[in-house]
Amino acid sequence: MSDTDSSVFESIRWLRRRLDDALVGGLDPKVWDNISSMRAGQNEYGYDPFGFEPEFLKYIYPVAERLYRHYFRVETFNIDNIPDDGPVLLIANHTGQIPIDGFLIGCALLFDRQPARMVRSMVEHWVATLPFASWFMARAGQVVGTRQNARILLGRGGCILVFPEGTRGVNKTYDRAYELARFGNGFMRLALETNTPIIPVGVVGGEEQLPTIWNFESFARLLGLPAFPITPTWPLLGPLGALPLPVKYRIHFGELMHFEGASDDEDRVIEEKVDQVKAAIRGLVQTGLRERKGVFF
After folding, report:
1. pLDDT (tens digit, 9 = 90+) per residue, 95-145?
2. CATH for 266
3. Which of 228, 160, 163, 237 is nearest to 194 (CA)?
């Protein structure tokens, strides 16, 4: 390596250190200490087997904290129901056209919980094919959604977030707001196989961020999308109309649930257990709707 190359690399490292110092200096010290001391299965170099690096969160924190605290003004309830360590599945309702609910649940466990826990979400397979996105998602702790990856994370004491409704929940029109769509059975089979407890999570606020009047299904199929929502602002106002409204989110964490049985039981048996989780989530959502005083406050 030439002297010129060495000088360039040294300059880049200096800029990186200055950026890191500036970022950390602007963070809430208590929150950052809570996050940076978090144990999430990382090795001596600071990474876990999937590439997650807790230090990387300092690049996300400034924007995430402002969205969480000031734009969506998230309020959490009974967040201490989540165990301090050990494997756990967070099972939540899915709402809002844009899946911001998962992002906010993850922020809640980093910003509002002592000690912090890293929520691992299962992302779609095609994300891994995108050069920058795949690297970013890995560093930020997200993992391609395969059963084997989930087993590895739970085996290492991970906290995994699952939305059993999938796109069925997130793409509802507003006339079906807060109605729970059909749940898949996969999360329950995984919980039984790995002997992992479940925390039901009820999210209130997401349905109003982009209230959908109509789903233009034929156009969505033409574009290869799961849905093409029509809202009072989208597509009328163009890209600006696709921004979520500054609704207030309320996230309710239920009590720990344990299930026993064979993971390969017939669907009827598994569905009975799934229905118990679904009923718990429905109760949390109904409590949230009943107790809130308004959509934006």
Report:
1. 888 889 999 999 999 999 988 899 998 776 766 676 777 778 888 888 888
2. 3.40.1130.10
3. 160
pTM (two decimals): 0.87
- Pick the closest to residue 77 from 205, 201, 162 (CA basis): 201
Tokens in use for 242? 């696709």
* Cα(123)–Cα(126) distance, integer angstroms: 8
Domain that holds residue 62: 38-209+244-291
Sheet of 159-162, strand order: 75-77, 250-253, 198-204, 88-92, 159-162, 119-123, 143-144
**Domain contains 283:** yes
3-state SS, residue 295: coil
Q: Parallel, antiparallel, or unpaired: how do β-strands 143-144 and 159-162 relate?
A: unpaired
Give the C-alpha separation, 197 to 191, whole Å: 7
> Which value, to the nearest 10 degrees, does the dihedral of the CA atoms of residues 23, 209, 295, 167 take?
-110
